[in-house]
From TrEMBL, chains A, B:
Domain of life where this protein originates: Bacteria
Pfam families according to UniProt: DNA_pol3_beta, DNA_pol3_beta_2, DNA_pol3_beta_3
Protein name from the UniProt record: Beta sliding clamp
Single GO biological process annotation from the record: DNA strand elongation involved in DNA replication
Subcellular location: Cytoplasm
Gene that specifies this protein: dnaN
Every DNA polymerase III beta sliding clamp N-terminal domain range: 3-126
Amino acid sequence: MIKFSINKSFFLQALNATKRAISSKNAIPVLSTIKIEVQNSNITLTGSNGQISIENTIPTSNENAGLLITSPGAVLLEANFFINIVSSLPDVTLDFEEIEHHQIVLTSGKSEITLKGKDVDLYPRLQEMATENPLVIETKLLKSIITETAFAASLQESRPILTGVHMVLSDHKDFKAVATDSHRMSQRKLTLDNTSNDFNVVIPSKSLREFSAVFTDDIETVEVFFSDSQMLFRSDYISFYTRLLEGNYPDTDRLLTNSFETEVTFNTGALRSAMERAHLISNATQNGTVKLEITNNSVSAHVNSPEVGKVNEELDIIDQSGSDLTISFNPTYLIEALKALKSETVVIRFISPVRPFTLMPGDDAENFIQLITPVRTN
Amino acid sequence: MIKFSINKSFFLQALNATKRAISSKNAIPVLSTIKIEVQNSNITLTGSNGQISIENTIPTSNENAGLLITSPGAVLLEANFFINIVSSLPDVTLDFEEIEHHQIVLTSGKSEITLKGKDVDLYPRLQEMATENPLVIETKLLKSIITETAFAASLQESRPILTGVHMVLSDHKDFKAVATDSHRMSQRKLTLDNTSNDFNVVIPSKSLREFSAVFTDDIETVEVFFSDSQMLFRSDYISFYTRLLEGNYPDTDRLLTNSFETEVTFNTGALRSAMERAHLISNATQNGTVKLEITNNSVSAHVNSPEVGKVNEELDIIDQSGSDLTISFNPTYLIEALKALKSETVVIRFISPVRPFTLMPGDDAENFIQLITPVRTN
């Protein structure tokens, strides 16, 4: 039966990272628990919601953990409840001891708390994965690719494949990530230093957001493994599994064209503020849009929501070329697109009032492109 | 028709303070608006939810306001919407101009936003109050009295009078504030430096909490005025009106007695942490309680929730005298009582397992007393 002692803060941090995979309202009740497996030289914490699973390993060799294992074993504990209890303990260390019938006694300072656990055999078996030939990538880079693309994925389950981010590696080094909800699209390209096996997968955007929260910036690199149905992100102590989406991702390359009629360069922050003002007014009308008027000496934005009011604003521009154009669109799409840009300037290219327009960062137009579909107005 | 210009941040701060009285879901639709009245030398912002009303005055003489009034007038604007718009404006100043049909044009930088307003005659008339012989009190002191008592008022409308704080001034200087929800009670006494007319009122605890949020710590003193049905807190720029509760407040003095059998002095923070742990477990059972066991050489806390587990904890004590005693109570009441105490130590006096026990701060036992009713267990 389990017996160990550990530093409370360190344990709490590992529990909270693992909890990100655990939903308290799961259709499978046992998935609201956290699995605690104690081996001779480490503890593994496991959480899962059926889509994502996280395994967090705490080795006795990690000095910050202050981990002393007296006796191994395994138990399931209600995740939220257990974490709240650990967080409330008075001392810097805690003793964790299993007594009869999966009961756990936590001792810390003069406080002794007894909790009911469950038999570890009740926990579902998570899929195993072959871990060969990983793609090794900087955590920071992978997280920035996720920030640049995942927001553009669909939130609606009507076309499940669009709720994912399409990630493709070809020729062992040409990487592409793309997401679209059919109204807008965001695509990031990259040439990798470390070559790996080619892959072509669609990853739920929700899983990618959880990955970004779990893999903190102190984790320098991450190993990525693929199988037909799932994917594993692994660092020294954390294994993060996610299921993949099944089905064919639409061909997004055909949406991109090099031709354009009008090009305007904006300051990213100034354009975003102007669109946020426009959105406050357009938002009062269902499917409210902002109208951009580009003439040869000015660019202006206009919103008219008869119930609440209107906005007229002249926009500061950095550069401009091509034909005059008037185009209407949902300002939310442009706001989200600009949020995803780290560049100080943004280049926007228009073809016609009824064709999608493209956004590229002023400093890296080759590798990051976004596309927004306009709204036809009369 | 109105025309003025003002510093955006200053205006926003005044709007947000006024908004605290405004509920966007009011049964009287016009109360979701903010009233803006522009006179020759100041602007008054008014918000009300029918219970609380706030008037905020911005004078041209305040240099931080940067207020320049060209033409007076009055208009109503949807409060939330208007404040969001002001907050989004690009420049440090804004111009506010009324055009035809209560329409307002806001200009800031190159942005021009037109909003629909309403006729000021639609706004209800707020009650007037005689402003003579105020009670003048330090804002900080009044806010600390509110923190010490308002939490103990009832949240249930079954006995409306108990949702208020009973405030009484007798002999022109003896002040008492008391609140009870019939399970616990908190009473603060004070001898005032500035004498005033006697009063005996019951103020909704919700109004007092809003008062504490609106009157920031930079406002040194506040004038308090009473009428039969309402009350006014006034500083240089802010007038805060609240309705009073009608009815007789129960006689709480009879609950207090000087006799006791057992007295224990605790460190406030340590006792609170222990009760928070106890609450995590007791909370899993409906009406869960914590049992305190006081013997001649130790004090311990025990919770047993058969579904989830139990807590046993020896409590650190500073001092102890009197008979042995075992008493059960809802730990939430003790946690909230301890939160209201600024003193490092707390003295708790017990009479018997079925009689209320009292809490007093270690450093000011005379003037601040709290009372908690135990739960009978078998």
